[in-house]
Amino acid sequence: xDACAVLARDIKFKRGNRQILDVExxxxxxxxxxxxxxxxxxxxSTLVQILALLQRPDSGKVFIQGEEITPQNMLRLRRRMAVVxxxxxxxxxxVYNNVASGLLLRGHKKSEVDKPVMEWLARLGVDSxxxxxxxxxxxxxxxxxxxxxxxxxxxxxxxxxxxxxALDYPTKKALLNEFCGIIKAMKISTLIVTHDPxxxxxxxxxxTVLEAGKIIQQGTTxxxxxxxxxxxxxxxxxxxx
Length: 241
Known about the structure:
The chain is of the alpha/beta class and about 240 residues long. The protein is built from nine helices and ten strands. The chain has helices at about 45-50, 75-80, 95-105, 110-125, 140-150, 170-185, 200-205, 220-225, 230-240, and strands at about 5-15, 20-30, 35, 60-65, 65-70, 80-85, 155-160, 190-195, 205-210, 215-220. A six-stranded mixed beta sheet has the order 6-7-8-3-9-10, sandwiched between helices. The longest helix is centred in the last third of the chain and has 18 residues, at about 170-185. About 35% of the residues are buried. The mean pLDDT is about 90.
């Protein structure tokens, strides 16, 4: 089996009588950063949840590093991933405890987590808030904590569902620049959902375009500009320019 970071085949998912996804093939290469774009309701978040093993498809197969997902190995393979959502889903405790929580759940001893937690808080510029309650964080601070909580796990695959959408422009620009450097240096295989076309050239190597639950084009941004397969892709590519 081809050992790319993530491979999905014949993914179908319905909600009621509505077909949400009908994806023949999707692949994310090792170390690749891919943007997933499409209009609201095109199925982007559902596809991310299925690939991140948070939602089971009605049919189809998902492979992580060449290993097919089964009920027996799902938890083990899920631990090789991390997910960051648009709204930071933080625990009602300190910043430190939030970032440490994933490591502790994965069996690390308390004595082992202090160094990586503080290192990641420092890299994302929120180490001075380590003992602060998450209740009092700004939107940008909360998202930095959410990113630190994901990255401290050293995931092989990272899923980002519009993590910068709720931030004001100056905060978004600063965080995007920092985050881009981090994931490129770590060579994490990353899939990022975005509605902001300006994020794509800064982050992604390739782009996948989703329309009505189907992947209609996948390739480099340059390829989308030069060879859009239809007017929808041309519109999406035009927004990126």
